Amino acid sequence: MVVDVADDPIGTPSVYLGADPRRPYVSIGLPQGIRRWEFMLHDDEPTALCDDPAFMRALLARHVPDPAALHVINQRTFTHHGRVASEFRKGRVFLAGDAAHLMPVWLGQGWNSGIRDATNLAWKLSAVLAGEATDALLDTYTVERRKHASDMIDVNMAAGTVMKMGRLGGAVRDVAASALNLVPKWKSYFTELRFKPMPRYAAGVVVDQTTLVPGRARPGLKATRRSKGVAALAPFTDSAGAVSPVGLQFIQPRVNTADATNVLLDEVTGDWWTLATWGTDPTAYLDEVALALVGRHRVRLVSFMPETQRDWAERQYASAPVPVTVVGDTTGALKDWFDLRACGLVLLRPDHFVAAACLTRQASRALAALREAASLTTGPAAEQAPHPLEGASA
Fold first, then answer.
1. Residue 359 in contact with residue 345, Cβ under 8 Å?
2. pTM for the whole structure
3. Residue 287's CB: how many other CB atoms inside 10 A?
4. Rounded distance between C-alpha atoms, residue 333 and residue 245, angstroms
5. Interior angle at CA 328, CA 326 and CA 332, nearest 5
């Protein structure tokens, strides 16, 4: 049962998740001075109780001094669902947000998951409608988003089970929670929701780091039969980190460029493809075919540098065949990122996930593999035929 009240009678900005074994509840301070409560209805309590003022006041009596004086603006019931569509695309129809997946409110991830759907789908539709990719790119939407949405639903359902434990289970849970409070590191792991699954694309618009095979990306760097020769390279075996960054979001520290100071990296790389190297000129590793692909698909070339070397690099790369944006690493975050990973070059997707990561000398191969994984078209844009999705409405 949900109750929305104007003129918040509590006034704190906090969100309370009350794991009361008698009746779990949520209390949330919303914008415009609204306070929301959500109370679990027991199996023997009909939804018609939602319209009973006495029942509602009894629920609120433990939360506010005078429930009868509250300005109730909305009350209703709803059911916590955990559902996910089998496909997020069928022809010209795409599902996103609540149309694609439903999850309980316990961890507040329903809206976040919808935003992730939108950012994944938007750039792919843009690429297809602009003639820069074929229709096959849109099939990666389900491949990339469904698993993470499903994993998030599982975590939300598990959180609900913990919240709704009875007296005995609740007592055990509360003792465990009290023990966690004694260890700040463990406490922050749960209070900051660090246990929730982060999106990682193991299939779709990704390139495996060790094999440079398009369409799939294993998280580890261990050798396989197909990658035996490649994985024997020292950077793969001796790297401080044994996990590939492919399929994960890239970091976003504050950086400097010739045109801007102390800006977020996303503001520099923009909203399309980026090819970035650490400490070197990226054009030095691209053959003619790769340079043509860079021009065709508006790939921004970036060189990450220690801030102390930025001026030198800007002068050095001024005569590069393709413009290179030099980014000054003012915080050391970019250097630390590359220090822990067996790569000197990354290809970033328009949604800022790592599509490919490799050694600098593998740049052209990685770009060719990315072209295949993303179903990118070749040749000048003017030569591309009109796409069947052109003119479609959302």
1. yes
2. 0.79
3. 13
4. 15
5. 140
